[in-house]
Write a structure and sequence with these properties.
Blueprint: E1 3-6, H1 10-13, E2 16-17, H2 21-33, H3 42-49, H4 58-64, H5 85-89, H6 96-108, H7 112-133, H8 135-140, E3 146-149, E4 152-155, E5 161-164, E6 170-175, E7 183-184, E8 192-197, H9 212-218, H10 220-228, E9 233-234, H11 235-242, H12 246-258, E10 262-267, E11 270-275, H13 281-284
Parallel strand pairs: 1-5, 2-6, 6-8
Antiparallel strand pairs: 1-4, 3-4, 7-8, 9-11, 10-11
Helix pairs in contact: 2-6, 9-10, 11-12
């Protein structure tokens, strides 16, 4: 059993990336309903459960999320790479839009910067793959249940279904809270959408504080940079995470590389940095 998505010609040329605050919020609420199915987010679930009592209408939203499929009207297809929450909610009917807004403000907004860093890093990595190796390489690396064969994207999941996106194209949406599954709109109006777990979710809820003793040794910015480099990141990614310019990041990277705490490699058109074993914060204490 599988969902077959036809992508050819114009549709294949219209493949793009985006992510959705509304989708993350809805799937986060679903994670509260069935936390066992979203084990990677249990630290967030424990935090969120202390804050849900005051969210008016939450029970109604939870009721709509019961079952293996999710209502398409609660998950609009993002029309730009990073749509504004209010712009997305205009595509959701009331009263659900009001409930989703309240859920986002209480449960997601405090973590949104951390979440978007993961989503942006995923898009950057896959965009590099797209530029260097083509769309087929992107599809093959999205999710274990997703394959590409004979001009069709295949999601190996029930129910048996066919989706024709040869004219409208497909939006690839990395997600945090859809983990561990990939999700696809079965009856899209216009562009289709495939949601898949973003890379790096496993470290999302780890404590990332900068060790004070390390900061005293090499400076707080460089210490923070080393904690961020547990996985490869570009100069632009680091600049966003640190709130500094790309030039400033390059200067810090140069110092850390000279001390053999960071290594740099090129992947296609992109330069990625990663800390060495010597540069692990625990090794420097």
């Amino acid at each position: 059993m599988a969902v077959w998505v036809r992508l050819a010609g114009v549709g294949l040329a219209k493949v793009r990336f985006a992510y959705s605050a509304v989708f993350e919020t809805v799937m986060a609420v679903d994670g509260l309903r069935t936390p066992g199915a979203h084990a990677v987010h249990l630290p967030w679930v424990r935090w969120a459960r202390e804050r849900v009592d005051g969210i008016t209408g939450l029970d109604t939203l939870l009721a709509r999320l019961e079952g293996p499929t999710k209502p398409a009207d609660l998950m609009p297809v993002p029309d730009v790479r990073m749509p504004d929450l209010e712009a997305e909610l205009r595509g959701v009917g009331r009263p659900e839009a009001d409930v989703i807004r309240r859920c986002h403000d209480v449960l997601i907004a405090p973590h949104w910067k951390r979440i978007t860093a993961v989503l942006e890093a995923d898009i950057a990595a896959r965009a590099a793959t797209l530029a260097d190796k083509g769309v087929e390489a992107v599809f093959h690396d999205l999710h274990p249940e997703v394959t590409w064969a004979d001009g069709e994207l295949v999601l190996h999941r029930k129910p048996e279904h066919r989706v024709d996106l040869a004219e409208h194209g497909l939006v690839l949406c990395p997600s945090v809270f859809c983990w561990p599954k990939a999700w696809i709109a079965l009856d899209p109006v216009g562009q289709g959408v495939l949601r898949y777990p973003a890379r790096g979710i496993g470290t999302l809820w780890e404590e990332r504080g900068t060790p004070d003793d390390l900061a005293a040794l090499i400076g707080r910015t460089r210490a923070h940079l080393l904690t961020l480099l547990e996985a490869p990141k570009s100069t632009a990614d680091l600049a966003v995470a640190l709130g500094v310019t790309a030039g400033a990041v390059s200067q810090h990277i140069g110092v850390l590389r000279a001390a053999r705490l960071v290594t740099t490699r090129r992947e296609g058109r992109h330069v990625l940095h990663m800390r060495t074993t010597r540069g692990h914060p625990h090794e420097l204490k």
